[in-house]
Write a structure and sequence with these properties.
The protein is α+β, with helices and mostly antiparallel strands. The chain has a single domain, classed as HIT family, subunit A, CATH 3.30.428.10. 25% of the residues lie in helices and 22% in strands. It is built from three helices and five strands; from the N terminus they run αβββαβαβ. It has a five-stranded antiparallel beta sheet, sandwiched between helices. It is globular, with a radius of gyration of 14 Å. The protein binds 2'-deoxyguanosine-5'-monophosphate.
């Protein structure tokens, strides 16, 4: 979807600090980090939100978590811990309507709510 900023980042037509990319997903630094480590992991294919994750998306949805685990381990935050967040629609606080997994860590997030 050419008007979607995350599609543009995946395609390389918008700038972002990409930290991982494969045939299914892309991970990059969040532009407004809420923690020392704040990465977004997104499907390469445009999926609006969790509400649009169908059975055919199982491999991609699984890959989002696998890459989150890998990036957390690489950054040395796996044992201290981290938070994965998926906001969905307005009540969930979703602002970019391309499915994304927030990976937050590098400090205690218990006070974050
Ligand atoms: P959410 O509220 O869950 O939809 O979070 C969207 C996140 O996306 C928010 O933390 C800021 C981030 N974001 C929005 N636009 C851009 C962008 O152009 N580049 C990057 N790297 N992050 C973005």
């Amino acid at each position: 979807m050419t008007s979607c900023i995350f599609c543009q980042i995946v395609a390389g037509t918008a700038k972002a600090e990409i930290v991982y990319q494969d045939e299914l997903v892309t991970a990059f630094r969040d532009i407004h980090p809420a923690a020392p480590i704040h990465l977004l992991i997104v499907p390469n294919r445009h999926i609006e939100s969790v509400n649009f994750v169908g059975a055919e998306e199982e491999a991609t949805a699984g890959r989002l978590f696998g890459v989150a685990r890998q990036l957390a381990a690489e950054r040395g935050i796996a044992s201290d811990g981290y938070r994965l967040v998926v906001n969905t629609n307005h009540h969930g606080g979703q602002t970019v309507f391309h499915l994304h997994l927030h990976l937050l860590g590098g400090r205690s997030l218990r006070a974050m709510g």
